[in-house]
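[09:14] KT: can someone run the structure on this one? pasting the chain below
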Amino acid sequence: MNEVERNMTENKKTLLITGAAGGVGQATVAYFNQRGFGVIGVDRSPVYPGFPMDGLYIQADISLQENLEMIYKKAADFSPSLDVLVNNAAYQVTKPLLETSLEEWDAVMGSNLRSVFLGVKLAHPLLKAKAGGAIVNVSSVHAVATSANIASYAASKGGLLALTRAMAIEFAPDNIRVNAVLPGAVDTPMLRAGFHRGRLDEPSEEAQLAALAAKTVNGRVANPEEIASVIYFLADNSASSFITGQGLVVDGGATCRLSTE
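[09:31] RB: done, structure tokens below
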């Protein structure tokens, strides 16, 4: 990066987001970029069409410590500071707990929870460089109300919610706010992939989406842009300056209704 490019970057707010190539990830990248943010996107998948040309895309598996160290070295070269960190990457295993192997359990924890623990320690100096910033962790409604055959994912997202509270307390002296968003059903490739669990008689994707929609108060599933807007709200110090250590449920009312109703 030459001196002109570095000066331009220094005067621009910067977002680093993991899971950038997923449904919510792409929507969040676009939402922040449209509002003037420079974007550092991280994902194990290759860069996708439409990622900002002036951004930095890093293809890497964040469950490995050495990869996280590489990511934040490249991030620091791209921008001397971060304004927002969004921990969005997620890996899901959908099978009964008794059939879940140790390797599968560790893979979920590595991607969804350990990566955040390791990553925020590396991100902290960059967030502190501008006298503060915001971290938004993408948890899930499975952190507070879950279902069968998703135990490892639910445990990782519950742990992420608890970690959010702990980070908010420890990072407050550095003017770094930490919050979580807990999405319900969102029409993403991950959600649709979960519909295919090997049963020959499984309903179509659209039928399963309709069944999910019927379980919400709003009567529909979310689109990724709706989650991106909430992430932006929690990251925006002018809009949410007195909010930290909180988990904001965005589920169309699914968890507010009694299961006996």
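[09:33] KT: thanks! The beta strands are 14-18, 38-43, 56-59, 84-87, 133-138, 176-183, 247-250.
[09:34] RB: yep, looked fine to me
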